Amino acid sequence: MKKFISSLVAITLTAGVFTACNDKKVVPNKDKPVIFFNRQPSDPKTGEIDMSSMNWNDQTFYVGFDAASGGIVQGKLITTFLASADPSIDRNGDGIIGYVLCIGDVGHNDSKARTEGIRKALGTWKGTTDPQTVKEGSVKVSGKEYKVRELEGKPMTGADGSTWNSTAATESMNKWVEQFGNEIDIVISNNDGMAIGCLQAEKFPQGLPIFGYDANSDAIEAIGAGKLTGTVSQNVDAQATATLQLIRNALDGVAADEIVKNGIQKTDKYGNKITAPIDYIPAMKALLAQNTGVNKDNWIYYTAGTRDVAIKHTNAPEKKVLLTLYNGADDFLASSYLPALNYYAPLLGLNLTIVLGDGQNESSCLNDFTNVDDYDAYAINMIKTNSGRDYLQKLN
235 pLDDT exceeds 50? Predict the structure, then answer.
């Protein structure tokens, strides 16, 4: 069933067994489970984790992926490709591997980690993720050392102010080809959406190596078709399931030290356990899925529709969850994360009301983060990473 909340869409997923009204324990909103996911509460400038939000209550956690490791995996994917590449990859034969970089959001921890991982792998890291601050690096291609130069790193911000913008990537790719021509030997992107945007550019040179991040379904198809060179899977099913499993555990009254383990690192009472490895970082109250490089050798294992068969239907009583997505048009969230939530929520007996934001204004989510008394738990994906308290204040 679908219903409209203001200008946004709320999607209701119903599953499980309804509990009688007189059996329902009244819990203050401030004591209910709060799970931040995908966008970690943090300072957009320094990246420092907002532990004030994370310590809201004992049942507040973050679910994401190991961003630092993900950047390293992407960097390794690129250097491994170059190590066995034909010398003709240096398109103009100048002894320099030139690349352009699509940056998602200069204030987002994940974007920063990917930019850092790429630059460190290629030797262009100069101690900062600032788009303008790089140095000349080096890399081996078929046993020979080449210089590496970042021709330009550019944040992909749309005309509407949205970040991680694929249309901006398409436009930038055309301009880069005009400006740099065959100096461009590789295209690298902080996510798949922008990488696909580059591939859609009219002037994109056919066969030019290009790397993305997220393992979205269209990116996996592009690898299979020989258009995209590689991407990184952040195990979206593991993340989506962990977000829901934490809520299920907390609402089932699982002991505090077991909330981050049951169904995640060990089998829960329903017989469920997420297959992909997930690490818990106590200092950040964070569950982080591990990353995997994807290329022409293993893309078939990441095709759309592959779900974790270890997660089965439970007989748990239904609980209601209010969940926000910062941008209903975001490539990764819309094509990968949301379908995973839709699949696993009914299995875990969770009824989700999903508010879709516009990716620009926090109010597009906050204005419909309402009727909070009606829900048993909350899952929050913010537009700005320093907006955690704005949501939590509504639970006081």
Answer: yes
